[in-house]
Amino acid sequence: MENYFLSKIALTNFRNLNNDVVSFKKGINCIFGNNGNGKTNLLEAIYYLSHRKSFKKNISFQQLINVECETPEITFLSVFSNHKNESLSYSGKLNNLGSTWYLDNKQTRKKLETKSVFINPFDSFLFHTNTTFRRTWFDQHFSLLDKEYKRALKDLNAALRFRNQLLSKKPYDFENQILANDHRYCELNLFVLQKRHYLLNQLNEYLSGIFKEIFDESHSLKLEIDSKCSGLNVLEMQNKLKEKLEKDKIIGHSNLGVHRDEYLFNFDGFNSFEFCSLGQQKMSFLSLLFAYIELFRYKFKTYPIVLIDDVSGELDRSRWNNLIAFLKNKEFQVFITTANENFKKELEKIEEAQKIFITDGAVEIS
User: Fold this and answer.
1) Is the CA virtual torsion 230, 236, 238, 242 positive or negative?
2) What is the mean pLDDT of residues 47-69?
3) In this model, does residue 56 exceed pLDDT 60?
């Protein structure tokens, strides 16, 4: 992946944002404005460029398009640049029927190689309280890091859906169909679990150091996974599935598999979900996000674009300054929003940063 950063963007009919051409810097880009004026919408547009979807769940075209638009179409125009002063254009059109994308004016089906990571501190609560959210979070982020994981997870989900359909609908000869497909189902489960262990171990190499660097505190952070499939080989898992088949038939779905895995986040040896304060949980979650960004760089030799949606309410003033110092020392392009006047004053002290102001969807550069 080439080390490109977003240098310009222009949007038409995307939420409440005006059709302004906005220029960005390679380093820190600070986005200011009152709540409800469009700061997060700009982050969402940048995320959409690299992923062709929103970071928000189940968002339809009707929710993205400006309610006052004359033409039912959203357009993205952008320019990406690198340290060699080379540039490429990336544009797209989005409507009710789908989307069309162009790289240097040539239609392309491939997604942009320059990825972005969205940091929303409010996700910390869901991460620490919702098992399904944790599994989904890791699946999405691991899929960006590892194509084999993404492919195997897709195949596993298809195999799980097929197995569950047989269990719930119980068509003719469904038990033999289940037994015939369980070997492949087990192979996929154990491969995905192996990948999860591997990627968690890689994340763990960065976690405690990142926490120390940002928050100036020494704590031991470690991610683990609790899986009923751990330690099993394919044959052993098949036998367990046979033992559980009668129960699975009654409940109508598969009870054994890595779709039931539990991720654990240990803080000084204690389960952070149960024993940490809200402040420690928020700091741990931010450390996880930045550890992921460092692992991303290790994997692809380049950083993703980092999108940070107002962390001012999650950190005290001293930790604001630690975070700013951390961002200044990194090589990634970062977009950080705030509506907090005190945090805004701290961000405005960053001389080399681009200052962007949004008022009712209108974007201005300071």
Assistant:
1) negative
2) 93
3) yes
Sorted by where each begins, the domain ranges of the chain are 5-114+302-365, 125-275
Q: Does domain 5-114+302-365 have CATH number 3.40.50.300?
A: yes
Helix pair 131-145, 174-215: axis angle to 10 deg: 80
At 311 the pLDDT is: 85
Adjacent-strand bridge partners of 363: 358
Spacing of C-alpha 117 from chain mean position = 5
**Residue 2 has what pLDDT?**
64
Fold (CATH) for 125-275: Glutathione S-transferase Yfyf (Class Pi); Chain A, domain 2 (1.20.1050)
Please report which confidence band the pLDDT of residue 321 belongs to, taking 50, 70 and 90 as the band edges: confident
DSSP characters over 172-223: TTHHHHHHHHHHHHHHHHHHHHHHHHHHHHHHHHHHHHHHHHHH-----EEE
pTM exceeding 0.85: yes
- Diameter over CA atoms, the chain: 71
